[in-house]
Amino acid sequence: MTQYLDIRCDCGALQGRVACSAHFFQNRVMCYCDDCQAFVNHLGHESSLNQYGGTDVYQVSASQVSIVSGHEHLKCLKVTPKGVHRWYASCCNAPIGNTIGPQWPLVGFISSVIVQDLDSIVGPIKGSVFCQFANQPVPKEVKGRWSHKRIVATMVIKLLVWRILGKAQPNPFYKAGKAVSKPHCLASDNT
């Protein structure tokens, strides 16, 4: 039986669901990259970061995701011109998650948008990535049991298999190969 996680922005106007049945079709990491930090800081949602500047990201294939209500609030931005698409709810500036593009089946949800307790349903964070961008040294016990290289290698394998299996569709963030909201680039604001 498929279990679902509920997705909800801070004000509840945007809601969705994520099917989380098979272990192979999910991943959970702590990301310390400077783009993740810039994204949530731009939205004024610093509470999504841990004390070291990390973002708890729950990764699934796009075909597992549906937006139930509030489609009109789903907006997209990029931190840099070639960066990933970062999605948020314009009604309350809540960060929703990240996608690479319409052809790639990955959706990385910011854990603060998931209603249920991820630890009890999905399990703990497997490891950390991009620790060099943390705002202070990340203690070994906080990093998790998987190394950066193991997490990246595992996700590359999953992405390739998900793509072969057609898990990029349906994708609620893209329609006819284009983002449902034209991405705004933060880097262009600073030039």
UniProtKB/TrEMBL annotation:
Organism field: Pseudoalteromonas luteoviolacea
Q: Which domain of life is it from?
A: Bacteria
Q: Could you identify this protein by its name?
A: CENP-V/GFA domain-containing protein
Xref: Pfam families: DUF6151
